[in-house]
Amino acid sequence: MGKILGNLNYALAIGVVLLLAAMFGLHGEAMGQDGYAHWWLRFFHVIAGVLWIGLLYYFNFVQIPVMPKVPAELKGGVSKYIAPAALFWFRWSALATVILGIAVAETNPTGRYLMQGLAFEEGYRVIGTGMWLGLIMAANVWFVIWPNQKKALGIKPVDDETKAKAAKTAMMASRINFILSIPMLYCMITQFYLPT
């Protein structure tokens, strides 16, 4: 069992098999019906969002607070191996979440709502607020956090002063995203379930 669960690819394959069992077992009759593809997009939008926000929370609850306590001789393990890998998944899951969110809004079987949400039209203000917060956060990931993390981690070589400044800028941008994630998640979850 340890050999199977110790391998990420095996664990992922088991998860996919269980997904297919749930899909066919619970919704087999719905496959092929209009709107079924929309629910797949919504599922993958949520998966990408969980990865993105999960990593955002990892950075803010674990890595940022713990790094000052890590002995100097061990910091290289985090900055050379863990942080770059986490940032890879962080930035690409942010992009996937946005693209899939747009697809969800444009394929909704009860009516498209992308433009109505972005324009804060009546009945779409909550989802529109969530959309804008998500777009701001994704832009922050790609245009502030990632460029500064490349400097802070030494992926893009810079002098020590620039490196320290970039680390602080990346941390502040990450904290802004952390703050924005709270109302963003509220808006995304409650749009279609609470009166607006």
Question: What is this structure, in a nutshell?
Answer:
Helices cover 79% and strands 0% of the residues. With 196 residues, the protein is mostly helical.
Task: Itemize the secondary structure elements and their pairings.
Layout: H1 2-5, H2 8-27, H3 36-66, H4 72-107, H5 114-118, H6 125-152, H7 160-190
Helix pairs in contact: 3-4, 3-7, 4-6, 6-7
Question: Which labels suit this protein?
Answer:
196 residues, single chain, mainly alpha, 7 helices
How would you describe this structure to a colleague?
The chain is mostly helical and 196 residues long. 79% of the residues lie in helices and 0% in strands. The longest helix is centred in the middle third of the chain and has 36 residues, at 72-107. The chain is flat, with a radius of gyration of 20 Å. The model has no long low-confidence stretch (mean pLDDT 93).
